[in-house]
Design brief:
Helix content is 34%, strand content 21%. It contains 8 helices and 10 strands. Strands 1-8-2-3-7-4-6-5-9-10 form a 10-stranded mixed β-sheet, sandwiched between helices. A hairpin with a 4-residue loop joins strand 9 and strand 10.
Amino acid sequence: MQTTDASVAAAAVRDGELIAYPTETVYGLGADALDPDAVAAVFDAKGRDRDDPISLAVPTVDAAAEYTDPTDRERAFMQEFLPGPVTVVLQRRSMVPDVLTAGRERVGVRVPDHDLALDLLAEVAPLTATSANVSGQPSARRVADIQGPLRDRLAVVLDGGRTPGGGSTVVDVERGEVHRRGHLADEVADWLERH
């Protein structure tokens, strides 16, 4: 089902289903990030290696602290860059399942800067935050880009029109490491140098 109603997508997530949702970069593949079975379904739908962790999305920086244990420096960074196209790697809390993080103690956190995504996250969070594509294939910038077997696995596609594209910058603030350069990468690197 294709819709612009975040409540419909949220209901599907609560039922353990997979959805696609727009962000300020590309369409994301969403499921309940705390439900190991739903997370496993995301890996299966993408054909993603289980050793490659998936991030989670939340509606606010404060909400991130429900599922992670950020340091003061990490909080300051998040206040500066989120919502936005940046994924911050943080110490996870125990309710975050191993399947999401591939057994690691840290998890990537996103607060997307997109009204429809934030409406969805206000109703149901945290969600998985990974691109709505088969691993190794181009990311979806439009609903029409989500095709084939992946599209067939989705209960709801939340249509936010065309997205700008690109990827988030992935950063471990405590270690001062940028794992992946994307939007705002220069600004992130500059912040890490100054703080």
